[in-house]
Design goal:
This protein is an alpha+beta fold. The chain folds into two domains: 246 residues, 3-Layer(aba) Sandwich (D-Maltodextrin-Binding Protein, domain 2); 219 residues, Dipeptide-binding Protein, Domain 3 (Dipeptide-binding Protein, domain 3, Roll), CATH 3.10.105.10. The protein has 19 helices and 19 strands. The longest helix is centred in the C-terminal third of the chain and has 17 residues.
């Protein structure tokens, strides 16, 4: 079992409190989170696939179901009090609670839930990735997902799929249930309120949106009438503090209660501070080196094998990766079905071996390539790779900046980044690293990392599909073991070195804030001494 390790106008009073939070210790009923507000492109749940905005939306919206951060295999009720899977696993029927209301005052109904799921599929944005894999399309979703009455939601499955995967996806932030009536009042040209929901919220969560200023601040306020009870925090604020040293100073001064995206050096300094706790929250993803297989040099197996030996990952595990990941070279996350019981070293740092492999591939004088980091947070790892690769005869020209768009468009040579996932199941990482159903440029399957690297292995894709259809736990575990073994033998285009860890710095007086591996960190139970 995978377990957790530890646009409106603001009134003058709210602005005064925000200013006070910037100058002094935060009030006892206010939680201030220092984070990357610039990483919030939209507030629409249907378009989410990132940590900061997922946390925010998980508190503005409720889901049908939720996952306990300390026991991710145990699905918990939320808006749905109970659910029943058909004997042949062809459908799921959920019964909704009758005391939940949206911030507008409208009651939460099964029709809202059905419309929310239908909307995600119809819009086809990032949030639709999971549901589309279960066979839902814009053409069939209205027929298959429907409200039988005000409290009964029926989800018929168009394909054979493990129903646990479907239930997990219902707990994801992209399926926060939307107030259908309120949203459609702001629909423009049939956009299903897409434009309005970019900067507004229509949820039933414990907090409501007061203000969002991109690259600056998000202000939320508790709902006194929340069905789950009134939260202790009257206001939760997310402040844009992109510079790690500045965030560390604000944490130490008490101006900020929670620190996210704190750099390794500052985490090292804060680790010995008795006023702080550093939570190490494992994620469903990995740090990797990606090699574009459209490049004729990088597509050679011997070259891919050489790249397995050019990163000094052991040194990184004691420096920049100490708080951000742990050594792992399997594509099955630790503790999940089919994963190795302990770390297995498939490839060691060995620049001389890399040189030999390059020579065998026809490059006795080495290679020159461009290196694209995902963003500033990956610069230290990219610089380390650049330095150690040089010892193997590989000259990497480092191109600083945010290169996620190039990675998604297959417009790169060598790339360093990390992945995340929202389903607590190996299938989630398999779709990133072992799934590419159509390798053509026209397919535009940028949600799959294997497609991004243009690596086409039908056998891996079929194993991923098998894992989706299979419900027997032992058989699924065997599928994942077979997949992982095949992956390693093929000298992959995505070389995994570390499993992701998300560090959260929490001041000692804060209780009940628990970083969630699916990024659905919730604030309703947070208190302060």
């Amino acid at each position: 079992m995978f377990r957790h390790i530890r646009n409106g106008i603001v009134g003058s009073t709210a602005l005064a409190l925000v200013s006070a939070a910037a100058l002094a210790a935060t009030p006892p009923d206010m939680l201030v989170i220092g984070t990357d507000v610039g990483a919030i492109p939209t507030l629409d749940p249907a378009a989410l696939n990132a940590r900061t905005v997922s946390e925010l939306v998980s508190n503005l919206y409720d889901n049908l179901l939720k996952l306990d951060p300390d026991d991710l295999q145990s699905i918990q009720p939320m808006l749905a009090l109970s659910w029943e899977v058909a004997p042949d696993s062809s459908s799921i029927t959920l019964k909704l609670r009758d005391d939940a209301t949206f911030a507008s005052g409208n009651p939460v109904t099964a029709e809202d839930a059905a419309w929310t799921i239908q909307r995600v599929i119809k819009l086809g944005q990032v949030g639709a990735t999971d549901l589309a894999q279960w066979g839902f399309t814009a053409d069939n979703v209205e027929q298959l997902v429907r409200a039988e009455d005000e409290r009964t939601l029926v989800i018929e499955l168009p394909e054979q799929v493990s129903t646990d995967l479907v239930l997990y996806s219902l707990a994801g932030s992209s399926l926060g249930i939307i107030d259908r009536k309120a949203a459609l009042e702001h629909e423009t040209d049939g956009d299903l309120a897409r434009d309005w929901l970019r900067a507004n919220a229509a949820g039933s969560g414990p907090f409501t949106l007061v203000e969002w200023r991109p690259d600056d601040i998000v202000v939320t306020e508790r709902r006194e009438d929340y069905w789950g009870g009134t939260p202790a925090m009257r206001r939760v604020i997310m402040r844009h503090v992109p510079e790690s040293g500045n965030l560390r100073l604000q944490l130490e001064a008490g101006d900020v209660d929670i620190g996210q995206y704190v750099g390794s050096g500052d985490l090292e300094a804060l680790a010995g501070n008795e006023d702080m706790e550093i939570q190490h929250t494992p994620g469903f993803g990995f740090y990797y080196i990606a090699l574009n297989q459209k490049d004729p040099d990088l597509s050679k197996p011997k070259v891919r094998e050489a790249f397995q030996h050019v990163l000094d990952w052991e040194a990184l595990s004691q420096s920049s990766m100490r708080f951000n990941g742990f050594p792992w070279q399997s594509i099955i996350p630790r503790g999940m079905a089919g994963a190795p019981e302990e770390f297995e070293e498939h490839f060691a740092y060995d620049p001389e071996r890399a040189r030999e492999l390059l020579a065998e591939a026809g490059y006795p004088d080495g290679l020159k390539k461009k290196l694209y980091p995902a963003g500033d947070g990956h610069l230290l790892n990219a610089e380390s790779l650049q330095a150690t690769a040089r010892l193997a005869g590989i000259e990497l020209e480092l191109i600083p900046g945010n290169h996620v768009p190039e990675f998604r468009a297959r417009d790169f040579e060598v790339y360093t980044g990390n992945s995340g996932g929202r389903l607590p199941d190996p299938f989630a990482t398999a779709t990133h690293y072992a799934f590419n159903p159509d390798n053509s440029d026209e397919a535009q399957l940028s949600g799959y990392y294997m497609w991004r690297t243009a690596w086409d292995v039908p056998e891996l894709t079929e194993l991923t599909n098998e894992s989706k259809r299979e419900s027997d736990p032992e058989k699924r575990a065997q599928i994942f073991r077979e997949m992982d073994e095949m992956y390693q033998q093929l000298d992959p285009s995505l070389i995994v070195f570390f499993q992701r860890v998300d560090p959260y710095v929490v001041r000692a007086e804060v209780e009940g804030y628990v970083g969630h591996p699916t990024w659905s960190t919730r604030w309703a139970d947070v208190t302060k001494n």
